Amino acid sequence: MTTIKHSTVLRVCSLLVVLTATMLVAKESQPSSCILETNGIDTLWQIVESYIAQGIKAEEISIAFDMDETLVTTYLEVNGKRIDFPQSRFFDFLKATVKTLNTKAGIAAPLDAIFARNNAIVTHLLQENILKTRPMEAHTLQMLDALQAKKVNVFILTARPFFAAERTEKLLGELNITLQPSFLKTPETMIDTQIGCAFKNGVLYAQKGKIDKGDAMAKFFAAHDYKPRVLIAIDDRIEYLDGIERALQSWTDVSYKGIWYRRAEAWGIDDALAHQTLEAHLGDKWWAVARSGTLQQ
Q: What is the pTM of this model?
């Protein structure tokens, strides 16, 4: 079921009387902005099809696809059983756990050190095939291919830091995902690496805590002298969709559809299992990482 969650701008999607994405085939008299919520990726396809049915060219549509718990998710295998272990939730766990440890030890860890530490831990668990990755839904990757075959501009917008680019690109390579929006002037855009904002190989990095996804996207589009007629953003966290909506308020000629993808919302992680995994596979290294932010092999 797809419903309208809310809209924070004046251009409300008032034509959506019946709360389903397929009602977007009703022709809009002017650009509009709203946020929908859904548990299924098919909503994205329905929205794109509805715009194309209105006569909007596929090339005029851009889709910003979140990475973790939207495009892909992670899991553990314990005694032959798959246990959902979302990477973004794991990062939240690591941040909270190490903050407690550092507070007790009187250690002040800056934001970059926190990201570096968490990235080192997750990278190690992925390299050792302890933490495994899969698409969020069975047909997610096929949908990406189909959208690009239609000439829709698709790119990834992630809150991962730019120094996680190597890990991110390795994952995309393993999944055979290649994204190259047609509006790009150059394949790489170093917008502001000091605040973790850069575009490389189909991925726009907007480091959490340093730059909002909406601001990063506005800077990215400006760098390429580009403005879509329709922007669709799909993310598992509504605060990011809100940020994009705010950033686009002055773009009165752009229609914005945010899709709050709540499929993984109920997927937490078991703290005891998280501690057990860290200690079993990192041992003393886990505590060293907590203090130094690096993982010594």
A: 0.84
- Residue 17 to residue 94: CA distance in whole angstroms: 43
- CB of 178 within 8 A of CB of 86? no
CA dist 122 and 112 (Å) reads 15
Nearest alpha-carbon partner for 263 in 234, 232, 240: 234
pLDDT digits 0-9 by tens, 54-113: 999 999 999 999 999 999 999 999 888 999 999 888 888 887 876 766 666 666 666 666
The tokens for 69 are: 């718990």
Alpha helices in 128-186 (DSSP H): 140-149, 165-174
**Type of residue numbered 153:** N
Q: What are phi and psi of 5, to 5 degrees?
A: -80, -60
Q: Where in the chain is the domain with CATH 3.40.50?
A: 32-71+138-261
180: left (phi over 0), alpha (psi -120 to 50) or beta: beta
Indicate the CATH number of 32-71+138-261 among 3.40.50, 3.30.2440, 3.30.70, 4.10.240: 3.40.50
Question: Do the Cβ atoms of 261 and 90 come closer than 8 Å?
Answer: no
Given a contact cutoff of 8 angstroms between Cβ atoms, the answer to whether 122 and 293 are in contact is: no
